Amino acid sequence: MTTTTTTTGGGTREDIPWAELRKAATEAMRKAYVPYSRFPVGAAALTEDGRIVSGCNVENASYGLTLCAECSLVSALQMTGGGKLAAFSCVDGEGNALMPCGRCRQLLYEFRAPGMLLMTVSGIKTMDEVLPDAFGPQNLTEAGTAWTGSAP
Ligand SMILES: O=c1ccn([C@H]2C[C@H](O)[C@@H](CO)O2)c(=O)[nH]1
Ligand SMILES: [Zn+2]
């Protein structure tokens, strides 16, 4: 029998503490503010340097302004030292795996460590599998430079 090991920003696929991530996501889910949808979501991720960051969804009376759980996770990442994400897990109100929405896949892509893994409804997947051919910082020729008004 052969074993496939995938190298990720946090080590190998086998090194990821998936149960711990799911627990952190479930704890975060319990903090969700969801008076409108009544659909709590919790997200947790392992950073390359071994921290666990998490987030919950925070809704708004102006429904479209709702923050997904992944949004508050990214904010927590930045506010606790920054860095990149090696592994990610997201759960619904019953603690079952949930796919991040399209917008959140893009948010997570920005902060992915090489080989970042996601626990999904159909098993462990790579960032590239859930968001193929992603737009990202690599597409910005001179990220952070002011637009001069002249075409490239
Ligand atoms: O990736 C997702 C998808 C949905 N939600 C939240 C937003 C809203 O509060 C609720 C129902 O869409 O689920 C998330 O937090 N993350
Ligand atoms: Zn989302």
UniProtKB/TrEMBL annotation:
<keyword id="KW-0479">Metal-binding</keyword>
<dbReference type="GO" id="GO:0072527">
    <property type="term" value="P:pyrimidine-containing compound metabolic process"/>
</dbReference>
<comment type="function">
    <text>This enzyme scavenges exogenous and endogenous cytidine and 2'-deoxycytidine for UMP synthesis.</text>
</comment>
<feature type="binding site">
    <location>
        <begin position="57"/>
        <end position="63"/>
    </location>
    <ligand>
        <name>substrate</name>
    </ligand>
</feature>
<keyword id="KW-0862">Zinc</keyword>
<dbReference type="InterPro" id="IPR006262">
    <property type="entry name" value="Cyt_deam_tetra"/>
</dbReference>
<dbReference type="InterPro" id="IPR002125">
    <property type="entry name" value="CMP_dCMP_dom"/>
</dbReference>
<feature type="binding site">
    <location>
        <position position="101"/>
    </location>
    <ligand>
        <name>Zn(2+)</name>
    </ligand>
</feature>
<feature type="binding site">
    <location>
        <position position="104"/>
    </location>
    <ligand>
        <name>Zn(2+)</name>
    </ligand>
</feature>
<dbReference type="GO" id="GO:0005829">
    <property type="term" value="C:cytosol"/>
</dbReference>
<dbReference type="InterPro" id="IPR016193">
    <property type="entry name" value="Cytidine_deaminase-like"/>
</dbReference>
<dbReference type="GO" id="GO:0004126">
    <property type="term" value="F:cytidine deaminase activity"/>
</dbReference>
<dbReference type="InterPro" id="IPR050202">
    <property type="entry name" value="Cyt/Deoxycyt_deaminase"/>
</dbReference>
<feature type="binding site">
    <location>
        <position position="68"/>
    </location>
    <ligand>
        <name>Zn(2+)</name>
    </ligand>
</feature>
<feature type="domain" description="CMP/dCMP-type deaminase">
    <location>
        <begin position="16"/>
        <end position="138"/>
    </location>
</feature>
<dbReference type="GO" id="GO:0008270">
    <property type="term" value="F:zinc ion binding"/>
</dbReference>
<dbReference type="Pfam" id="PF00383">
    <property type="entry name" value="dCMP_cyt_deam_1"/>
</dbReference>
<keyword id="KW-0378">Hydrolase</keyword>
<feature type="active site" description="Proton donor">
    <location>
        <position position="70"/>
    </location>
</feature>
<dbReference type="GO" id="GO:0055086">
    <property type="term" value="P:nucleobase-containing small molecule metabolic process"/>
</dbReference>
<comment type="similarity">
    <text>Belongs to the cytidine and deoxycytidylate deaminase family.</text>
</comment>
<comment type="function">
    <text>Recycles cytidine and 2-deoxycytidine for uridine and 2-deoxyuridine synthesis, respectively. Catalyzes the hydrolytic deamination of cytidine and 2-deoxycytidine to form, respectively, uridine and 2-deoxyuridine.</text>
</comment>
<protein>
    <recommendedName>
        <fullName>Cytidine deaminase</fullName>
        <ecNumber>3.5.4.5</ecNumber>
    </recommendedName>
</protein>
